[in-house]
Design goal:
Helix content is about 30%, strand content about 25%. The protein is built from 11 helices and 19 strands.
């Protein structure tokens, strides 16, 4: 397949770099808004925006029409506010002793999924003489965060009491799917039914008019019945498909925002029978040219990608030769390779350009595309295109 390579965005002197297309992030959010119908969109920017850069990605998502930002860690939410992020922000992971007061001061909505979490938020609110904004999380079957079974009933009653005392203001209720990437799985319907039951139960005890949200990226793309008042796409914001067996990014009107590129640091000829990299798991079958790529598992290239990881050089797809090292890996480029040190190697790029994708890497290494992009190391400099970094 002949493709037109994307233009180089190399920082001066960089051996490898990550290009983030902020315009793609904004456009992906617009596409998700269209699918969401009347529901608002919360762009999930946790984990440094899935490796795309927390602050820059948040701004791009807002530009695309996201009315909410979502982050897992309390520290991420506070970092967003410190960088000037405006509008509603939801966070959901914190431990006993966390600085909930700082979250309240920063007007961050805090998730409450247990009595102890509620008590901690109420105490922080009382210490400041204010009302804290919270959302309640019900465990509808994932068996992870949120209140489950009788614990949910107890939390709902306690939260209603705290709201009546004006210690908290309950803005929403939410949950998370276990199997949204398999839309026909019976747990999907069961969790939706449990969620509706839990939300309706809140109304019966006087907690009315609050947001309901359940849909992650997969449900946003495939399950309109789960959209409720708000959808929470994460992976899809960055142009990756959460349901690759149902379609790639382009099938859902998305495009990849991340491109990882490196330069060959060394090119040399080798004879037949030359072992390559640690353990000589690759041996040259004939005279060939070896190319050294200066990124490795310290940069986020999976060590499991040895002899499997796909890259592209001069429009041609090839595979890592032998083991991935901490800082580099080797390519067996064949006897006719006419390139030189400094030539660009696409490690991760666009499906429409025929480049290796996060999904290609995931399939090669037995993982998911989420892990591929989130593990790209900060050691690789970021170049932001199409927006404010």
């Amino acid at each position: 397949m002949t493709t037109i390579p994307a233009p180089s965005t190399a920082p001066a002197g960089a051996s490898a770099w990550v290009t983030i297309d902020l315009g793609a992030i904004a456009d992906n959010v617009r596409a998700l808004r269209e699918r969401a119908g009347s529901a608002e969109v919360m762009a999930v920017v946790k984990a440094d925006a899935y490796g795309h850069g927390l602050i820059a990605a948040a701004r791009a998502a807002r530009a695309g029409g996201a009315t909410w930002l979502g982050v897992a860690q309390l520290t991420e939410a506070i970092a967003l506010r410190a960088a000037g992020a405006t509008g509603p922000i939801l966070t959901w992971i914190y431990v006993p002793g966390a600085d909930l007061g700082a979250a309240i001061d920063a007007d961050i909505t805090v998730t409450v999924g247990s009595i102890s979490m509620l008590n901690a938020v109420v105490a922080a609110a009382h210490s400041r003489g204010v009302t804290a904004e919270i959302e309640l999380k019900v465990d509808t079957g994932l068996g992870r965060g949120g209140a489950l079974g009788e614990g949910w009933d107890e939390l709902a009653v306690a939260a209603a009491r705290a709201a009546a005392e004006q210690s908290v203001r309950i803005g929403g209720v939410w949950s998370h799917f276990a199997w949204a990437d398999a839309p026909e799985h019976p747990t999907v319907r069961a969790q939706q039914e449990r969620f509706i039951e839990a939300a309706n139960g809140l109304e019966r005890i006087g907690i009315r008019g609050i947001r309901r949200h359940l849909a992650n990226s997969a449900a946003t793309l495939t399950n309109p019945s789960a959209h409720f008042d708000l959808v929470r796409p994460g992976l899809a914001v960055y142009g990756l498909s959460p349901v690759p067996d149902l379609g790639g990014p382009a099938d859902f009107g998305l495009r990849e925002a991340m491109r990882v590129t490196a330069r060959l640091s060394l090119v040399k000829r080798a004879t037949a029978g030359q072992g390559v990299s640690y353990g000589h798991e690759h041996t040259t079958s004939s005279e060939t040219v070896l190319g050294l790529v200066p990124v490795g598992y310290a940069d986020g290239v999976p060590r499991a990608a040895g002899s499997l990881g796909p890259v592209q050089l001069d429009g041609r797809r090839t595979t890592i030769a032998g083991r991935v090292c901490m800082d580099q890996f080797v390519l067996d480029l064949g006897p006719d390779f006419a390139g030189a040190a400094g030539d660009e190697v696409v490690i991760l790029g666009s499906q429409t350009l025929g480049e290796p994708t996060a999904q290609d890497w995931a399939e090669a290494t037995g993982t998911i595309n989420y892990e591929i992009v989130t593990r790209i190391s900060p050691r690789l400099p970021r170049v932001f295109l199409g927006g404010e970094p």
